[in-house]
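Regression test case RT-17, inverse folding.

Input:
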């Protein structure tokens, strides 16, 4: 019997974190460690949906800053997440973990389109579903996609695995005095403009009463600890 605290989770993986110490792209070692952790959680009987970012390949804001049309740049960012999703699914296959990629943008020869009912069915069958191409809309982020897909599939929590080990009073990369919160309410996180998630994602999770746990993608065993209901990172709650 599983002693996990959740039956269904939505895990948001930072694209940038997939680079590891590389300057660009996907670091094999990082991906296989993440896959091993997801496999462990899957074997505990937890249904896992994943939203993956694309920042290791392309970020819309960066394209727009250098003069590109913002929407065009954002579509490129969404396509970057599809590549990451395929790499992740393939790493899962090599680890004997069944996975399906569903894309919010149609590329039927490559991956399944996003169909909510089918995604839920895959989850019930014990397959990991990787949601690619974010929300399918420019001007959004994969954090918002995580809040959206998490709400749609009825996940009990959104787990944001990122470069920092929780939510801080200020950006810890800029302010060495910043203190980590153990728990924080949505109202306070939004009110204080804490930028670890974008405001749209925070607002959607708050409306849906969908808690978020922010933790470090680099800390071995952290994902399992969060899933077991142990104290790890920061819990953002209603
Ligand atoms: N109050 C805060 N607490 C924690 N991290 C913060 C905060 N404000 C800004 N950040 C920054 O948010 C980043 C994580 O968010 P983001 O860049 O969206 O990551 P991801 O690529 O995982 O989506 C961290 O690297 C951190 O520097
Ligand atoms: O619903 C979405 C999700 C993502 N993106 C684009 O895809 C890029 C990659 O996603 P994100 O920056 O969220 O990835 P991460 O920060 O997790 O690496 C973004 O910069 C956006 O340009 C988008 O336009 N709409």
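Golden output:
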């Amino acid at each position: 019997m599983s002693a996990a605290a959740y039956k269904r989770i939505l895990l948001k993986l930072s694209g940038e974190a997939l680079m590891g110490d590389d300057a660009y792209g996907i670091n094999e070692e990082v991906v296989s460690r993440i896959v091993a952790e997801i496999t462990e959680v899957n074997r505990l009987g937890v249904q896992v949906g994943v939203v993956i970012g694309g920042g290791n390949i392309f970020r819309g804001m960066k394209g727009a800053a250098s003069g590109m049309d913002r929407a065009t740049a954002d579509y490129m960012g969404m396509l970057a997440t599809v590549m990451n999703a395929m790499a992740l699914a393939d790493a899962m296959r090599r680890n004997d973990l069944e996975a399906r990629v569903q894309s919010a943008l149609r590329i039927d020869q490559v991956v399944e389109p996003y169909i909510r009912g089918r995604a839920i069915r895959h989850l019930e069958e014990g397959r990991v579903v990787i949601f690619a191409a974010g929300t399918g809309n420019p001007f959004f982020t994969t954090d918002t996609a995580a809040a959206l897909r998490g709400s749609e599939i009825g996940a009990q929590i959104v787990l944001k695995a990122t470069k920092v080990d929780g939510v801080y009073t200020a950006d810890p990369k800029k302010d060495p005095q910043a203190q980590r919160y153990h728990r924080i309410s949505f109202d306070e996180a939004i009110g204080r403009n804490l930028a670890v998630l974008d405001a749209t994602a925070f607002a959607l999770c708050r409306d849906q009463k969908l808690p978020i746990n922010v933790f470090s993608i680099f800390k071995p065993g952290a994902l399992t600890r969060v899933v077991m209901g142990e104290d790890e990172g920061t819990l953002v709650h209603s």
